[in-house]
C-alpha cells in the first residue's frame, strides 16, 4: 500500500494505492495521526480509486477514525470507490457511517454554516 497526502484546508485527501489490510494499518495510522496533529483538520478523505480490496480490520480502523473525527465535528469520506467496495459498504450498511463520493472535489469541500 502506498499513501500520498494532499491538504485542502480543513480536509486532508489521502490517495491510497494498493490493498488496505491489517498488515498496513500501522503505516496508515501513522499517516492519519500525522495529519490530525493539525487541529484545523476536520475531514479525512480517502481516494479509493486504486484500492482493489479493504479487509475487516481496515473497516474497523475507519470506524474508529470516524469516532475521532466526530469529536472535531468532522468525518471520514470515501471517494472514487470501485464497485466491489461500494457493494461491501451497501451490504454492511456502512453507508450510514461514511459518505461516498464519485469524485474527489466534492469530498474535500467543507461546508460551514
Please provide a written account of the structure:
With 113 residues, the protein is of the alpha/beta class. The protein has four helices and five strands, in the order E-E-H-E-H-E-H-E-H. Helix 1 (25-35) links the parallel strand 2 and strand 3.
Mean pLDDT: 93
Count of helical stretches: 4
Measured as a percent range, the helix fraction is 25-40%
Class from helix and strand fractions: alpha/beta
Envelope shape: globular
Quick one: how many beta strands?
A: 5
Topology:
Blueprint: E1 2-8, E2 11-17, H1 25-35, E3 43-50, H2 56-70, E4 76-79, H3 83-92, E5 99-101, H4 104-108
Parallel strand pairs: 2-3, 3-4, 4-5
Antiparallel strand pairs: 1-2
Tags for this model:
single chain, 113 residues, alpha/beta, five-stranded mixed β-sheet
Give a concise summary:
This protein is an alpha/beta fold and 113 residues long. It contains four helices and five strands, in the order E-E-H-E-H-E-H-E-H.
